[in-house]
Structures
1.
Amino acid sequence: MNVAVRPEDAVSHQPLAAPFLAGFRSLLSETTGTWVNWEGEAPSWLSGDLLRTGPALFEVGGRPYRHWFDGLAMLYRFALAPDGVAYTNRFLRSESFAAAIDDHRVMHGGFATNSDSPYWRRVMDPVIGRMTDNANVNVFKFGEDDFVALTEVPRAMRFDRQTLATLGALTWDDQLKSHTMTAHPLRDAWRRVVYNLETVFSVPSLYRLTRMADGVTTREVVAEIRVDHPAYMHSFAMSRNYLILVECPLVVHPLRMLLRSGPFISAYRWTPERGTCLTVVDKDSGTIVRRCLAEPCFGFHVVNAFEQDGTVAVDFVAYPDAAVVGGLALDRLRTGARQCAGMLTRFTVSLDTGTSATSILSDSLLELPHFDWRRQTGIAYRYVWAVGQSGAAFINDLQKHDLRCGTIARWSEPGCYAGEPVFVAAPEAEAEDDGIILSVVLDSQRHRSFLLLLDAATMTEQARAWMPHAIPFGFHGNHYPVAPRAQADG
Ligand SMILES: [Fe+2]
């Protein structure tokens, strides 16, 4: 074990006002290949790595970051075997990390925390493409075995899959310049490309949909859509033939964004009178096929989308408004219970008439949705796994939604707070839920986290492996098989 961060870099730990706040305490230690045995019985076929990223240092020089989304990124590797897990965690050695540790300053503006740079520098940084490299949102595999950590800007950070050593920023082999890029690229197994959504703040501004072939880092433009007030979009949707934007009415005037003195998200305004705009774009021609309005709502995550009977269905985790954005600020979280999850909502767009319909698929609160994305992305699917907020101050349980039957199966344990459930299909699986769910769970009473392994069909526990410390609440990750595979891994 080595300690990368001095304890004085973090705020002294006060007694917690609520148990879930243990998930927002900084994790200062790193460990390499620490072996822990499963308690219980993991499947004999279990192998590969669960790779994750998430914020883990919530202070700079003793001063707190403002928002959960701004903590400095830690990478995690859970190397899986039938008898146990080899656990590794390392801070992403980004410019942001170095400035925070060496100089006690916030180098790049984040989601809701300003940089410590003077105003002119904050304005110039996006113009010259100098943006945050604190990639704490998601991990993705480009090409054969090239892993990157992502945040919401076009600056992907490469890392070594085995050691989690930071390898530097991914170099784009193109001339495209943009200000945001989602941390949720979508891999199209039919076309063997990766799509993403970027935003260019200008007058007018642009939504830019790009595609990138396997094995290269050259982005091609699929479509550029002019927009007067760009919306904050954390993710987008993909069906077999279409890319779909879910444009919630949390929008920004581009000049307000470019000339802002405050943090990124504070420039946006909630404007429910605009409604939620659904834009269906043909993947191959880049033309807008349909554009229609739905009732105003806010959300971070598209679950999946598919075409059926002349319609495109888009499943989305929807909130009534954008209050959750401010509600996840660290000082707000520390003052009491928040709604931290939304409702599973389906937008259905008629390709014939261009009209939309909205239906609530479940009134159970959920977030961080997952499904069998390797086999079901872009096509009709049945199961969604997610974290849920069931009578607790923070997201706590794990849920399996059966979209066909409308039923929900759950896992929970007192004092425990579960992270994103990652589905791993069993070898030769036929049923959509034949496999396991992996989730990093914080036990607030034992002050430690464990990797939970559930039967994905029944949501019953098969095994758990205790980690050497409490792991702060993170966002996203994925399971990757041991050997590089040419098919649809991403
Ligand atoms: Fe996300």
2.
Amino acid sequence: MTEKLYELDSYCRSFAAVVEECRPMDGGYMVRLDRTAFFPEGGGQAADTGRLGDAAVLDVQIVDGEIWHYTDKPLVTEESVQGALDWTVRFSRMQHHTAEHIICGLAHRHYGYENVGFHLGSEDVTLDLSGELTREQLDALEEEANAIVHANVAVTAAIPDPAQLAQITYRSKKEKELTGPVRLVTIDGVDCCACCAPHVARTGEIGVIKLLDFLRYKGGVRIHLLCGAAALVDYRLRYTQTAAAAAAMSVKQVDFTPAFARLVAERDSLRLALKESHRRIADLQAAAVEPTDRPVYLLGADWDAETLRRIVNRLSERCGGICAAFSGEDGAYQYVVGGKADLPAFGKRLNAALNGRGGGSPRQIQGRVQATAKEIEAFFAELSAAE
Ligand SMILES: [Zn+2]
């Protein structure tokens, strides 16, 4: 069995080991050592990465109870090799994992909720609780958790013997029955939880715990969180974005939210006003068409579907034949056609002549044509001449 250095000392970032086995596998090699500081994927936490000699360690997995390092190069069996972890990544995971214990410990103490899921990957960290919480309750948890960070409480891991273990109250994942020795991670006065992953030695090392978005999930909540340097990177990004948005609106950053709400309200009322003026223009243009029983059409650049229908309805009130409206630019016009005629037949003719698609009811048809304004004009001129 490979000796688990990460269980004894979570700060072990480089170590010497002997290669016990190296097997080729699809796209690389799998290596077994006599001892390792590489944490294999487990309990929701992704595997450590790093180097074994010249080889890159891309993944670490437990297969049939044995720890295997997946490398890009082969290693020589029975030779000694120097291992080194990607420490920035590993330390960040230790911060997040310890924070998860604090949050789950507090949620358990205050609400009796269990931790029913945890994901600690490269992009995102989430934890799932068995019951629902509001933003206010999460804010309170976050505040209390950060007070524990500031108090710089000791975090220890130990494997008590079965008699001792029976006397200890601790949290554990309910869905999996624990077998064999149980490793307990204790945060003094805060939480005690069965866990095999590496943690920081004192809570102060977490730096900060920030609970971000949360959503209802399987009868409970899924919470996204960030700690330490990752939280700082996130803060910097959000600060930069808020600063840029506030500057663009010429307001102070603290006034950003109400200013943005005003901007959105203003945009909405401008949209309504624009729609109203489009309507008026459409009415005026339709009113300017001389009443006739011949086919008539109007052509615009920025009429939406509603405006097109309105124009066609207005034209139909004044004219006795085909009434059409087009909007768009050369090569791409949207159309609506109404009036007193066999519209499905007319639609087929229009689509055939102007490279179009569309259809509708006997009362109104709509679609698109890949034609120019000149081609539309020529089509209607031919139509009028034929009548
Ligand atoms: Zn843990």
